[in-house]
Amino acid sequence: MNFINLYLLLWLCIPVLLSFSSKAVDCSADTIGLCTPTVEEIIEEVITETIEYESDGITITTTTDTTTTTTTVTNEDSGDLLDGDNDYVVSSKEGDMDIDWGGQGPANMPSGNNCYNLGPDKCAQITGSGNSTSTMGVPNMGTTFIQTVNISDLNIKNGGQTKYSIKVDKQDAQDSIYMHITGKDGNTNVFSGTDILSASGTNSGYQTYENGFDFSGSITTIIIEVGGRDVNLAIGPLFDDVSVRVLYNVISTIVTQTITSVEEYIALNIDAPEDIIDVVEDVFDSNNVVETDNGIDFEPIELQEPSYESVEIEIQEIEIAEIEVEVIEMEMQVEAEIELEIEISGEETIEVETDTSKEEAPEQETKPEKEQEENETEVKTVEKQDNKEQEPTEQEEEETEETKTVEKKETSKEKAVKKIMKKIDDKKRYDDIAQTKTLVVMQVLGNTKTFFDTQKILNDRVDFFTNVTLPDAEINDNNIASYFLFAGSDGLHSEMVDSQWQMDLE
Question: 52 forms bridges with which residues in the sheet?
Answer without folding.
Answer: 11, 59
